[in-house]
Design brief:
Elements: H1 8-33, E1 46-52, H2 56-67, E2 74-81, H3 87-97, E3 101-106, H4 116-126, E4 131-136, E5 139-141, H5 146-151, E6 160-162, E7 165-167, H6 173-194, E8 206-209, H7 210-215, H8 231-237, E9 243-245, E10 253-255, H9 261-271, H10 280-303, H11 309-333, H12 343-363
Parallel strand pairs: 1-2, 1-4, 2-3, 6-9, 7-10
Antiparallel strand pairs: 4-8, 5-10, 6-8
């Protein structure tokens, strides 16, 4: 094989490829290979907060799993957010069974604002304990040590614990896509938090001190937005000193995934409405990581049609091997080895899918929150 001509494009391709590999191993590697540490023997009392709107089918299955947690002192606060199904009847029945289950509700009112944020604020005000652990009504813990796995990370300085929210394993491309995207996002926000740039968390699995919420005036700066109860709040209050993550086998939650592509697309449209309000450091880090990915795959695509096709194929395969090596341990730890061959596919798909959603949100009339 002849040596390729040394052109600015060729040099640029190698530089961008090197940056992509460094980014992957720096960010994803920090999440994948940093030891989670031993579970602390400290067991501070914890309030678990769940906001539920028309979730009776999930609550009847998942509340008992949460109540069986292996933890000495915790309460579960469920906020009935204007449900019109059997949620209220079901919660009252559970309250008679579990002494540590507390129920509150959002009243039907024209004054209702910003969807889940009001429900979550009510839940936080109702919480007895200073340490709060958030999850959703369609989630259940990965183990009976979920509370311990999350709260063991609290310390005098660490006031926020970022957790991983996985999705139930199923069949078909959509299930692989949803689970793969959730894993990629988790590795990114956990990895960046470990290098001092915490920028988001997910409400499916997130813990913090209650005082942090009220000292920040809750969601005051973005209460007009239906989204952002998790990522925007964390983006405001988290820093390198007060934030830690938990990524052990015991500490993640599992959620019910969407069953149709249309529903998942609406969910992702809602999620994308907040990132423009992230702080400058977060935006810069995410822009840099994303730009390198676009540049690499764009330059590889161009190279496949020119004299560098063999070089481009080699770089593509090296990237594939690198991603597989990075994600093997994580996939094994999260019981998702079936996702391993899908991770590169998800990475490429999402690079195309996110711009489409951004354009859709910008030009299509109607809010993605119209039913919330």
């Amino acid at each position: 094989m002849e040596m390729p001509e040394i052109t600015p494009f060729f040099i640029g391709l190698l530089v961008i490829f090197g940056l992509k590999i460094i980014n992957d191993w720096l960010v994803t590697g920090m999440a994948a290979f940093t030891k989670n540490g031993e579970i602390s023997k400290k067991t501070p009392p914890v309030s678990i907060i769940i906001c539920a709107r028309n979730e009776s089918n999930n609550l009847i299955e998942f509340i008992p799993k949460i109540m069986k947690q292996n933890y000495p002192d915790f309460e579960v606060v469920v906020v009935n957010d204007r449900s019109i199904d059997n949620t209220e009847v079901l919660l009252n029945a559970f309250a008679n069974k579990y002494e540590n289950l507390k129920i509150t509700k959002v009243q039907q009112s024209e004054l209702h604002w910003a969807g889940k944020k009001l429900a979550l604020t009510i839940g936080l005000k109702s919480a007895t304990y200073d340490h709060v652990l958030l999850t959703d009504a369609d989630c259940f813990p990965s183990s009976n040590n979920w509370i311990r796995g999350m709260t063991s990370k609290f310390s005098n300085s660490k006031k926020i614990v970022l957790g991983y929210g996985a999705y139930q394993k199923g069949s078909g491309f959509l299930n692989k896509l949803i689970r793969g995207e959730a894993l990629l996002i988790a590795l990114q926000y956990i990895g960046l938090s470990k290098i001092g740039i915490p920028y988001m968390g997910v409400g499916r699995n997130l813990a913090y001190h209650k005082d942090l919420f009220f000292d920040n005036r809750g969601f005051a700066s973005h209460q007009f937005m239906p989204s952002g109860d998790d990522d925007l709040f964390i983006n405001e209050v988290a820093n390198s000193k007060n934030t830690v993550s938990s990524f052990s086998e015991d500490s993640y939650t599992i959620s019910v995934p969407e069953k149709t592509f249309a529903n998942w697309m609406e969910q992702k449209r809602r999620h994308l409405t907040t990132s423009n309000r992230y702080n400058l450091i977060s935006k810069s880090a995410l822009f840099y990581i994303t730009l390198v990915r676009y540049l690499l795959f764009g330059m590889l695509f161009i190279s496949f049609f020119g004299s560098l096709k063999i070089i481009a194929l080699g770089l593509f395969l090296i990237n594939l091997i690198s991603l597989t090596a990075l994600h093997y341990k994580v996939s094994k730890k999260t019981n998702s080895l079936d996702l391993l061959p899908w991770i590169p596919i998800c990475e490429l798909f999402l690079l195309l899918f996110y711009p489409f959603l951004f354009i859709w949100n910008t030009v299509v009339s109607g809010s993605p929150w119209k039913n919330y």
